[in-house]
Amino acid sequence: MTDLHPEIRRITERIRDRSVESRQEYLDLIRSYKPDGFARTRLTEGNQAHASAGCAVMDKVQLLGGSWPNIGIVTAYNDMLSAHQPYEIYPEIIRNAAREAGATAQVAGGVPAMCDGVTQGQDGMELSLFSRDVIAMAAGIALSHNTFDAAMYLGVCDKIVPGLLVAAMRFGWLPAVFVPAGPMPSGLPNPEKARIRQEFARGVVGRDKLLEAEAASYHSPGTCTFYGTANSNQMVMEMVGLHLPGSAFVQPGDDLRAALTSEATRKAAALSIAGDYLPVGEMIDERSVVNAVVGLMATGGSTNLVLHLVSFAASAGIKLTPEDMADLSAVTPLLCKIYPNSAADVNHFHAAGGMGFLIRELIQGGLVHADARTISGTLKDQMMEPVLSENGELNWREPPSESGDLDILRPVSDPFDPEGGLKLLTGNLGEGVTKISAIKEEHQYVEAPARVFDTQAQVTAAYKSGELNRDVIIVVRFQGPAANGMPELHGLTPILGSLQDEGYKVALVTDGRMSGASGKIPNAIHLSPEGARGGPIATLRDGDVVKLDCKTGQLSFVGDEAEFATREPDVFRPNRSDVGLGRELFGVMRTQAGDASSGASFFSFPGMAST
């Protein structure tokens, strides 16, 4: 095995040194809850009776006096969203598998699961990022009954897995197993979908053609197949070892999918106090976090994970920064090309060798901590792929020795790019990030006059009236956590893509988010300080020249800096955008949320700043 890359080691040690006090405080907390027997024995007889009253008789016997561990299921099931619809049948699969393993299992509670695909460009998107913290709190309520010896988390998409991760870390004395549902089968190719979206934005095709294309893309139960935040989450779960090896991208309805769910249940029981006890808060450490970041960079994953990995790490007392991620990106080769970085989707990636091939290559390149612990052993044990034998038994095998498609997945010796593509941006407009893995080199530098907007709707109106048909840097301010919850602006992608295709130099600068599907448009996102808190983005005016250099990581106002420094920033005026669709319920979160560099979270436990 190749020695660990010296820069990976240096950054890991930097994170560890920075986190000494907060990590120890965290470990002291979870160790104070270390069980000395089954959790339910800490409850009174009345507590226990309430906790088992609704169980099947066979489970009740064990809960009230038997010697079986009890597994708590936290589920994001709903049947509106394709990614979470498959979870409807999981509790019964888990209960049956638990009994076979000498354990009981109960649905401890449900968490909300909203879809950015449904709310994209809509008012509801303003609740999206904060739903992560709501999910963490909802999972905390589910587990607060304190009658569980291990937990299984059923979630897939954008904010659901990050929220469940925070909860899992705060209940870090419990063993934790995350259970995926898998991607839907491939539908209309993603590039064709993107083309039709741009044609609709230009008025070339009508709404009927657009709806037909969208329905052909998102057509069945399972995760969307492009490599956005949901599938980046699943990759991270494999990299930190909270999934069974190779389980992330097995499709719903497959016999292998059901077998993996049953095996995940047996794993949860085996890691409980009744078996080889492995609390998740001890299992996850700085090495795990670095492995997650390297996996994100090697695959060209979602920029949303820049926020979520900071939040996840902080919940375990580990202080991760965007600078750490950018430094890791600089030494991590890009080994994958999945849409929006290419035409291939996650099903093609899985078929080409998938996570097993990727992890093996990263280990061989010395780019990850192979000794980081996982629910299956160490990361070395994670580089396997599951298969069913002819008699239906679940087995694991070595990943393929060669990629099945070098246009999708490459060995570490022949990467698509020597760097992962995430860049930290700095300059007189603040700090932000950009992802360049899908941006052609000729588009990675833009210097042009700014056009400043306060809403996405204003951008759309200006585009339709022909005001943006020129080289332009589109600035969308007042989109940060304190302003409106930091919604994604992915709905602007067809407009920006159309302008770029017409030959204009165009970029987006915002204190909001884009997404894992942001694609070919250069952008500066997560700008901090945000405009609503007086950040420099609120000082920009129409016509100001702005420079975005994605390669060097520079984002700057170009002009008289002394005059710029004397300007008063425009004041954010909500205009009742904080009322309706439940947005008024989240006022305290907007007030208390940290900035993007600290994960934009409402929480303030060690490692996560709160303003």
Write a brief structural summary:
The chain is of the alpha/beta class.
Labels describing this entry:
8-stranded mixed β-sheet; Glucose Oxidase, domain 1; 2 domains; alpha/beta; 611 residues; 16 strands; 4-stranded parallel β-sheet; globular
What is the first-to-last residue Cα distance?
Answer: 44 Å
**What is the helical fraction, as a range of percent?**
25-40%
Q: Calculate Rg over CA atoms.
A: 24 Å
Beta-strand content estimate: 5-15%
Record field, number of beta strands: 16
Characterize the overall form: globular
List the strand order in the largest sheet.
9-10-14-13-12-11-15-16
State mean pLDDT (0 to 100 scale). 93
Largest beta-sheet details: 8 strands, mixed
Structural class: alpha/beta
Total DSSP helices: 24
Multimer state: single chain
- Tell me the domain tally: 2
The poorly predicted ranges are: none
Q: Please, could you describe this protein's structure?
A:
- This protein has 24 helices and 16 strands.
- It has 611 residues and is α/β, with parallel strands linked by helices.
- It folds into 2 domains: 6-185 and 220-397, no CATH class; 422-574, Glucose Oxidase, domain 1.
- The strands form 4 sheets. It has an 8-stranded mixed beta sheet.
- The relative contact order is 0.12.
- The model has no long low-confidence stretch (mean pLDDT 93).
